[in-house]
Design brief:
The chain is mainly alpha-helical. It has one domain. Helix content is 78%, strand content 1%. The chain contains 13 helices and 2 strands. Strands 1-2 form a two-stranded antiparallel sheet. Strand 1 and strand 2 form a beta hairpin. The two termini are 21 Å apart.
Length: 287
């Protein structure tokens, strides 16, 4: 197994772990407040690591500008959408639906670039849509119920997550420092989230300290996943990295079974997750 593959699987594990930890944090901290702790804690951790391990002598302004531009939307927008999706859908379903990024890539290529869709891509697209439809048809899991429109929340997160990967790949080609990329992006995202909810958090008073710690753990897990993803993209191609990261919803299913007894999926919901993840992998391999 290549280094890029190992890093990608590590990123998948950390993304899945963050979904599970979020459920514990949401028991005492409202969803609107949670990214404030998760993103800012990730920012401090990323900069601590960058100060120790990044060779700043190779600093490239163009790469830093790309990483900063990405930070305006990632991870801040994805974090906001992901925690809302997790709250409404549960970690396994939110992870699976939020992982359909390749669908947007294929549709964008067909609609705007005039590309033709191949049989493999069509099969993958059909599997993804079918899997999401199964999850929407089930409409709930573990006593949790939702309307089909709620699936739009993780779908929006997938759109943002997919859009940033080529930009990060471009930046790393100019300056191969994944930890610097994560640190710069998190610094900008921290400014954005403080601007959005900082004043409201001050008015609301201190949050539950246990809840804050859970979301600090979420931030560290997501931050580690982001660094591992960037490092994997720096070593290998998106075609190798993305399918392996795409298995994180299945890891979330296993973790939900082990740690969240109330989040166990019904058969149809589990089938929907398996089908959608398989579709994502087929899409990436066919592309």
């Amino acid at each position: 197994m290549t280094g890029a593959a190992i890093l990608a699987l590590g990123a998948a594990f950390c993304f899945a772990l963050a979904l599970i930890l979020t459920q514990f944090g949401l028991r005492s901290v409202p969803s609107w407040r949670s990214p404030l702790y998760s993103i800012v804690s990730s920012n401090f951790a990323a900069w601590a690591g960058a100060a120790l391990f990044v060779d700043w002598r190779g600093f490239d302004l163009r790469a830093a500008a790309i990483f900063a531009a990405v930070g305006c939307v990632f991870p801040v927008v994805v974090s906001i959408l992901a925690v809302r999706a997790n709250e409404r859908l549960g970690p396994a379903v939110a992870g699976a639906v939020g992982n359909v990024t390749p669908v947007f890539a294929v549709l964008g290529a067909v609609l705007f670039l005039g590309e033709h869709i191949g049989f493999g891509q069509l099969a993958g697209l059909t599997l993804v849509v079918g899997g999401v439809a199964l999850m929407a048809l089930r409409g709930g899991t573990g006593g949790r119920h939702w309307s089909a429109w709620v699936l739009a929340i993780p779908l929006a997160a997938a759109l943002v997550r997919g859009a940033i990967q080529p930009a990060i790949k471009t930046g790393l080609a100019l300056w191969h420092e994944p930890l610097a990329a994560a640190a710069i992006g998190y610094a900008v995202s921290s400014v954005v989230i403080v601007s959005l909810v900082g004043r409201r958090a001050l008015r609301a008073g201190p949050a539950n300290p246990v809840g804050r710690l859970w979301f600090v753990a979420v931030g560290l897990s997501n931050g580690t996943a982001t660094f591992l993803l960037y490092a994997a993209l720096g070593l290998g191609s998106i075609a190798v990295v993305a399918p392996l990261v795409a298995v994180f919803p299945l890891m979330a299913v296993v973790m939900s079974y082990l740690f969240l007894r109330d989040e166990r999926l019904h058969v149809i919901g589990l089938l929907g997750i398996v089908v959608s993840v398989a579709g994502v992998i087929v899409l990436l391999v066919a592309g």
